[in-house]
Fold this sequence. Notes:
Blueprint: H1 23-35, E1 38-42, H2 49-58, E2 65-70, E3 80-85, H3 86-98, E4 102-104, H4 111-116, E5 165-171, E6 177-185, E7 188-193, H5 194-205, E8 209-213, E9 220-223, H6 228-232, E10 234-235, E11 254-255, H7 258-261, E12 266-269, H8 278-288, E13 293-294, E14 306-307, E15 315-320, H9 330-338, E16 340-344, E17 348-350, H10 353-370, H11 378-396, E18 401-403, H12 406-422, H13 430-439, H14 443-451, H15 454-473
Parallel strand pairs: 1-15, 1-16, 9-12, 12-15
Antiparallel strand pairs: 2-3, 2-8, 4-7, 5-6, 6-7, 10-11, 13-14, 17-18
Helix pairs in contact: 1-2, 10-12, 11-13, 12-13, 14-15
The structure holds adenosine-5'-triphosphate and magnesium ion.
Magnesium ion is lined by residues 49-50, 270, 319.
Amino acid sequence: MRFKNTGEIPIPKDPLAQVIGQDEAVKIAKVAASQKRHLLLVGPPGTGKSMLAQAMALHLPKPTEEIAILHNPEQPERPFVEVRNVNQVRKEEKMADALKGKTVAPAAVPSFVAERLGFRCRRCGRLSRASEASCPNCGADKKFESVFGNIIAEDAYSSDKRGKRLSTTRVTDDGREEVIVYERQGEEILILDQKTLEKMDAVKKKRPRKVIVPFNRKTFVVATGASETELLGDVRHDPYGGHQGIGTPPYMRVVPGSIHESHQGVLFIDEISSMQYSQRYLFTAMQEKKYPIVGHNPQSAGASVRVDDVPCDFILVAATNINDLPGILPPLRSRIIGNGYEVLLESWMPDTAENRDKIVQFLAQEIRKDGKIPHASKEAVEEIIAEAGKRAKQWAGQDNALTLKLRELSGIIRLAGDFAFANSHELISRDDVVLALKRGRNVEEQLQDKYGSVWKAGASELAREKKTHQKEVG
Length: 474
Ligand SMILES: Nc1ncnc2c1ncn2[C@@H]1O[C@H](COP(=O)(O)OP(=O)(O)OP(=O)(O)O)[C@@H](O)[C@H]1O
Ligand SMILES: [Mg+2]
């Protein structure tokens, strides 16, 4: 260990390389990310299951598909789903750009247009800025006045009230007459020809849509399984029942579930066995790679709405501790095994020089992540490594080993860091760690110290309660 403090330790950029002591699991997570395989991570608390799942998601390419819900005019309660890839959207954006028309300088339009839009003086013909109300050359008022004054609305001249827009006709080279619109945009003029105008109309008539899963999304989605709607999506209630004019149309009320939001990404489910009936939905979704969104509340106006075939092509990463394994439905496990891996995480690693270095890297990571505590001195690190050895013995019965229940170690370094910070130490010292180890014990351990055992503590508490009760009664 050739370092003075953890500030000198480099931290790998790759999030998977930041997971220490789980080499097998990391290898598999890499394969799973590139081959799109599911994972079941089994292991004790605080060994890096959640961390692995997140790191794996960061290894996935950016999503290429966007999911939108389209209005169905014939049957509003059966909206359509639309999946577009990046290329399609780019193409449409290009079209929209073309629809914007082109802007030109005032000198490039017929003089009567320049006049009407406030660029050209009617008296002397000089061009000037539209923002100037009178001609800077001859002083004439540039505002257009019809010969009829205000008697006839200016609409009669196909110009709006402020002279911002003028639509007229022109004869094309092949002798057709077509509509052309000139519009003032700042000090320039926008020209929209008939073709552009027609395209604009077509776009406006296009089905209204709501994007429920955008391109720009995270590839890591956590589902708690707390509710079916969270997992599978829902259709929100509308007190007006989606009535035209006053209600919100059904397609607007469709909400995606986590299975849809994790399309092309990782769906992470912690403690999967605590999720009971929903496991069934999950394996159906995994099999079909699409799942309908329906309103789940029968009392709600959303209950009559259904969108079929909403894509949900996710990678499932499920985590569980060893005792809860039987709580996972066999068909779900077989879906994972059939197209993925079950991985057992390690709870300790041999005490070697290489693995000690890994603990050092881990401590450096935790300190950087925390951001509020100073780095640790070499002596402090040695103290924590010794503790890692003790815990491997205590929890896993292993000699010459280091624990991989790293959340616990992370707690110790943070606590020690707080002591160092409170005492204005430049680095976390050995004493800070020793103090943290003493203070950081859980309540059971504290009781053990005070009463000899948790059981005795309970008994003495009971005795005290009895006494006070008798006193009060007597
Ligand atoms: N293998 C590891 N490498 C580096 N850091 C780790 C590792 N395992 C745990 N940690 C640290 O401990 C924290 C908790 O780990 P994580 O949440 O991944 O554990 P878990 O296995 O999901 O636990 P639980 O079963 O309680 O959900 C991480 O944020 C990280 O700081
Ligand atoms: Mg976790």
